[in-house]
Structure formats: C-alpha cells, structure tokens
Amino acid sequence: MTSTPRRAVVLAVCLYATAVMIMAAIEFRPGGASPDWLLAAVAGFSVALGVFVAWRSTNSPASGGLVLLGAAPTATAAIEAWGESFGGPGSIPGAHIVAYIAPGVWVFNLTGFVVLASSFPSGPLPVRRWATISRLFLLTGALVVFVVGVQPEQFEADGGPLPGAPPFEMPAVVNAVAMLATAVLLVGVLAAAVRSVVVRYRAGDDVARSQLRWFVLGAGSVPVLLVAGWIAEVIGASIAVAYTPFMVAITVLLPVAVTIGVLRHDLFDIDRILNDTIAGLLTTVVAAAVFALVVTTAAQTGTAQLEVGEASGLAAAAFVTALLLYPVHRFLHRLVGRVIDHDRVVVLGAVRSFVDDVRDGTVEAEQVEDELRRCLDDPTLLVLLDVPGRDGLTRLDGTRYDGAPNAEPLVTLDWHDRQVGALVLGRVSKRRARIARAAALEARLAIDVSRLRMELRHALDDAHDSRLRLVEATAIERRKLERDLHDGAQQQIVAVGMRLRSAQRRLLPDDPTALDLDVAVASLEATVAELRRLAHGMRPALLDDGLAAALGKLAHDVPLPVRLYVDDFAVPELTATTTYFVVAEAVANVLKHAHATRIDVRVCADGDGLRVEVSDDGIGGVQPGQGLAALEDRVAALGGRLLVHSFVGRGTTIEAVL
Amino acid sequence: MKLRIVVAEDAVLFREGLVRLLEEAGHDVIAAVGDAVSLVEVVDADRPDLAVIDVRMPPDLTDDGVRAAREMRGRHPGLPMLLLSQHIEIRQAAELAGEGGFGYLLKDRVLQVDDFLDALQRVAAGGSALDPAVVAALVSPLRLHSGANVVALTERERDVLALVAQGLTNSAVARQLFLSERTVEAHMRSIFQKLRIPDSGDDHRRVRAVVAYLTK
C-alpha cells in the first residue's frame, strides 16, 4: 500500500527531476544563459535527505516537505531560467507563457518551509483550520504570481521583458491595494505556519517537542541569516557573499536539522543548543541596540567638538555595551530558557533553592534524593554514593546498593575525573538522563556533603569497632597474663620454697642454716604475695566469682566505710572488668582528693546495660574532665558514657552507663 | 596421726614438692595425679583419709578441682578434702564448706609447713580450715545486698566469726581477741540466732554459721 507521505515524496522527486530536465534543456539550447546548477546541486542534497528519511522512517510526513525544500527552489530557478530565455537567442518552447509566471514564482521557494511548518513532525494538525495552511499557501502563491505578473513595469510598454502591454489597465490605487493585500495575505499565511509550530509544540509530548526544537533551530536560523544578509548587502558585501549563509541555511541547515529531528532527535542536547543560540542572538541584538543608542546620544550631546565627541562616544558605547553584555546575556538566557528549555530551567531552579536551604542549614543534605525525585518527577530515582573504602555503591541511608550496575539505567556522576556516585533513574530517555545529570551537578554540594558525612560516620564506626577490639584483646591478654603468673611463676616459686622447707627439715635442730632458709622462704612468700598483687591489678581473679565478690574485696581494702549495693545479674566479662576498674579508679580518686568519710557504690541493671554510681560525701567541686580522662576512655571504649555530678561542699557522684 | 593421702595437682614441680613434704611429715601418699578425672578414679578405687586437690586442673583448667570435690562428696560422704588455690575464688567452694572435713587454702600456705600440717590434720578429723585471706575477703564490713535478706552482724560478731571460720575454737578465739571465753560464747549464740542456725549439737553448726553468713 502506498501511503500518503510516500506519494508526496514521489511527486516532489518528480518535480525536482522535471526541473533538472528543464534546466538541462536550457543548458543545451545554443546561445542560452546557463541556469543555476549550483543551486540545483545544493538542493539535491535536501532531496536526497528527503528520500533517505522516507526510506528510514516510512510514515514520517516530513520526508515530502524535505524533498520539497530542495525541489521547490530548483523548480523556481528552472521556471525563472525558462522565462528569462524568452526573446533571447536560446529561447525554448513555451517561454512566452512561462515568462508571465517567472517574475512572481520566487514565492514558491518557501513551499518546503510552509509544508514542514504545518506538518512536521507528525502530519497536519487534526483541526481543519490548520490543515488548510498548505493549500492556502498555494493559492496565495498563485495570487502573488498573478499580481506580480500584471505589474505594468514587467511589459515592453514600460521597458519590461514581457511582450506587449498589460492585459488590463488597473488604476494605480487598485494596483497598490492589490499589492498590499497580497503581501498581507502572504505574511499572514507564513505567520499561520509559524503559529502552527507553536500550537504543535504546546500540545506535543516529549518526543514531538524535542523534534520541534530541532526544526526551530534550523528554521529559526533562516530569517536571522536573511536579515544578516540584508545588513551585509547594505554594508557593501556582494550579493553572493551576503546571501550565501541564508541559502546554506535554507538548503542545508534546515534539511539537516529536520532530518535529525525525525531520525535522531535525541542526538544532542537540543534544548540547550537552542537556548544558547537564541539567547546569543538576542544578546547580540540588544548589544547592538545599546551600542547604537549610546553612540547616538553621545553624538547629540557632543556638539562642541564633533570629532572628539564621536570618538569618545564610540568608546563610551563600547564600554557600556561590554558592561551590559554579561548580565544581559544571563538574563536573556534564563528568560529564553524558561520558554524553550522549560524543564531544565524549572528543575535546576528548584534544585538550586534546595541547595541554598542546605547551605543555610534549614534542610538536611541527605534529603537530596527526595528533592531530586520531586524535581525530576521520578518517584523511584535513587542517589548512590561512591564512598571510599567501601566496595560498590552505597545508598543514602548507608545500605549497600546491590542492583547489577550494568543492568540498571545508571547516570554516573563524575566531578574532577572522579566518580563520586550515580543516579538510578526510574524513567529513562537520553533527554531525561541529561537533565538528571544537570540537576545532580546543581545538587553537587548536597550530594558531596551527604557523601562526606557518610564517610565520616563510617570512619567513626570503624574507629569505635577497632577500639572495642583493642579493649577486648587487652582484656584477653590480661586474663592470660594473670593465669600465667598464677600457674607458672607463682607455682614454681612455691615449689622452690617447698624444697627449701624439705631441706630444712633434714638439718640438725640447731643448724644455723635453718635460719637462713627461714629468711629465704619468707622472701619467697613475699614474692608470691607481690605477684598475686600484680596479677590482681591486671585482672582481679575474684571476677571469676562475679562482680559482687570482686567489688566486695575491693571495698574491704578501702580504709573508709563503703556501702556497696550490687544487683545480682549476669554481666559480660568485658563489662565486668571495666566496671571493676571504674569503681577502683573512682574510689582511688575519692581517697586521694575528696576528704570523704564514706563512699557509696551502686551497680544496677539499666536497660540492656549497666549503671555504676560511686558517690562520696567529700568536698566536691570536681570539674568534668579533671583527672577523669582515663575513666572516660575506659567507659567510652565500650560505647558507654561517664557523668560527673559534683558541687562544692556537697560531695561527688560519678556515674557510668555501660 | 598418719594419713593415707591422695594428691591431685597438675604443676609437676609443686606436686613433687608437696608429696615429698607430706611423706617427710610421716604421711602415706597413696597416689599423686595430675588431673580431675584421674583423681575421681583413684578415690573411687581406694578411699583415702584425705584428698589434697588443686582447684585449677586439667581437663578444663577452670574449677575442675571444685567440681571433682563436689562429685566425690556425693559418692563418698564425709571424705575429707583440702582444696588449694592460687587465688581467692570462694563462691564455688562455699557450699562444700557447709559440712565438716573441708579446707580451702592458698597454695603458698604450704610454705608455713607446721600450720599447713595442722590444717591437714584438722580437716582429716572432720573440722574446717578456711584461709584467713579468704575469710577476710568475705567477712568484711560491707553489706552485699544481693536481695532483701540482709543480716546485720556487729563488728565484734564479725571478728569472732572470721576466726571461727578459720577453724579456731572458742578459747582460741578468746585468746586472739583478748576476750573472755564466755563473751565469745555469747557472741556465737547471737550469731546463731541472727543467722537462724538450729542447734545440731556438733561442731558443724559453727561452720554452717560461717557459710550461711558468707553466702547470704
């Protein structure tokens, strides 16, 4: 089945082929002027693109428009050449009729543009008003051909190329009105075509908008370059130089842009390119206006010394323009962006204000994921962080991200050539990925702060874990040393003592050596006692009988009345040892500094842990941290905390929660 | 009185010294073993007059001696046992002290040979011998509140009890504390009352008082 777009392509290609044949006929007519082959060749590019699009994207209505973009100017040129050959030496058949059409036929150069504007990217708008634009254009074109064709100056009578006199005489007023009406009609049709682009953009989905942006990029350059061509012509450039960019725009730039729009609209970041282009153009216009304004003003005020005034006026204008250039560009960029690159500007604006809030401390940096989800309208988006010292990627809540990195649509975040994290998008397209990356870049501060805080948290956890491991290792080591002292050295000393005693028994009753042996054994006993004391300092063996027994012995050795309250409950070895030393050190402090008359020690269960209180009735006034560093370290190593309540004259209470 | 003794001690040097010391004192060491399992086997095979037992021994190197002693108590009621330890661990042994024929001494007491041999004889005769350091650790002027059952002995009563715990008689306590024997008896009556120890008419009442106080 031959679809409508394809039939249009075939017709348009036929038109191009016909035009080329006519041009060839003119070329080979002896004595005739050579037609514009360059134009035909360049236009052939557009025709080829149209055929290519028709082949790749069968249903795209743009292919016909594309071919027309090249075929129409070629046909126009052919008709003009055909008409011009009238009356010359190389005149070809039918030239006397075509000559009437040729003067106004230039208007059909716009056919491709109008067709594209009214049907790109997905065919004519369904509303009839818009669907008739192409037909209306053809009618208007015919009208232009007619009105131009009957202008008196076209005819021999008035020195024109056409034979005879105008077919009918028109009063000058009627003629002027007809000219004006035709011009208004033409401008109206063109405006309607442009307007249909706007309507289509507003109603279009993401893809259509992206495609239209490409079209606008190509088509927008056409009028701009046309104006530039006028200016260049006025300044004095040759017509070839002045209008070449314009012709390139309409025959190359626009077809390329449209082709990309149809086939690969995701190719580049068209939103940004378009935004930058338009903002740049507008800035140039504004800068030129400012420049002109300042020069004019300076010229009017500088009446006294005209030449100096002019020079200083130019300098002032350059200065003012330069001064304004950057802010104006920024302002315009944002303004244009709001219209053309709406999504990005809105998203980035929201993210920016979020980052400001983070900087002000009113929101937590870790909320960046929620914020990006909201801004990008992607409720399953994930922010992943690359935390040093951890394999793979980590989620903001500290858990490991275990999705397969290659299976998921990941947007990696690299700053300064270092991957700091990634985004996992729930909805994916190249365009969304680009905006998400830009948003993440904008939220860099929050993401980096989250990352650093997580790094810090991990480092602290690691430090705490390793401290606990050290304390545990120390406790085990102490226990082992204590055992070694008891079972090794102590036993051997006692055994030696026993041998001495045994030898002593074999001596005669009044042998003076017996006394020496008594002294030796006594010093061995003292050594054993000293060893026991040392071993006790490493880890009180009484802890084997429980915390209460060990603390009981401790309290017994204190030269002050000690009231001891110990709840009977099971305590892990490490906690028991720590508790014992905390009490021992606290009691030692009381004895040294407090001038107390009694000490209360209380050990009770406190939730999962244990609470130790050592209070005295001494002079008080202990400042936190004063000589308590060792105690604090012991307690902190188990993840506990130490509190000191001390008022001058009212005693001191040291409280440790383990 | 010559005793048939079993020695259980894993440190070879100390065991040899102890055996020699006992034999020189005229006792008969019928077996010297190095772990708790052998100890129980030896005692089962040939009931001795006394077992001298190290607290920390193979196989577990924790309180194997105490556990073996408890086991033997069940099988051979009234078997006198003297536990030796490197340091003060009482709780496990306290219940054993509740009956006669039990002693608990630090190892280095062995070096005071005469006192050690006295304690040996006392235990073998069904008396008790708790190390002064052990008693001191427990009979201390503090209240161990591990429940509502609080026993408040006076300071004097505690002193008396501490000496009784070491196996001293009332007259020996009286001499040590420079009191009259009647006063010591009065203190003991008060202690028995406070600790609710019924009159069983033997020496064990005194030991039970000590144990009751220590384990409260």
Description:
The complex is a heterodimer of chains A (658) and B (216). Chain A folds into five domains: 4-200, no CATH class; 269-340, no CATH class; 348-454; 460-538; 546-657, Histidine kinase-like ATPase, C-terminal domain (Heat Shock Protein 90, 2-Layer Sandwich), CATH 3.30.565.10. With 658 residues, chain A is of the alpha+beta class. Helix content of chain A is 65%, strand content 8%. Chain A has a five-stranded antiparallel sheet, covered by helices on one side. Chain A has a five-stranded mixed sheet with strand order 6-7-8-10-9, covered by helices on one side. Chain A contains 20 helices and ten strands. The radius of gyration of chain A is 48 Å and the shape is rod-shaped. The longest helix of chain B has 14 residues, at 181-194. In chain B, α7 packs across α10 (204-215). In chain B, 49% of the residues lie in helices and 13% in strands. Chain B folds into two domains: 4-131, Rossmann fold; 139-215, Winged helix-like DNA-binding domain superfamily/Winged helix DNA-binding domain (Arc Repressor Mutant, subunit A, Orthogonal Bundle). Chain B has ten helices and six strands. Chain B has helices at 12-24, 36-45, 64-75, 91-97, 113-124, 132-138, 155-165, 170-177, 181-194, 204-215; strands spanning 4-8, 28-33, 50-54, 81-85, 102-106, 128-130. Mean pLDDT of chain B is 81; it is low at 140-150. Chain B is of the alpha/beta class. The interface between A and B is large, with 42 and 34 residues.
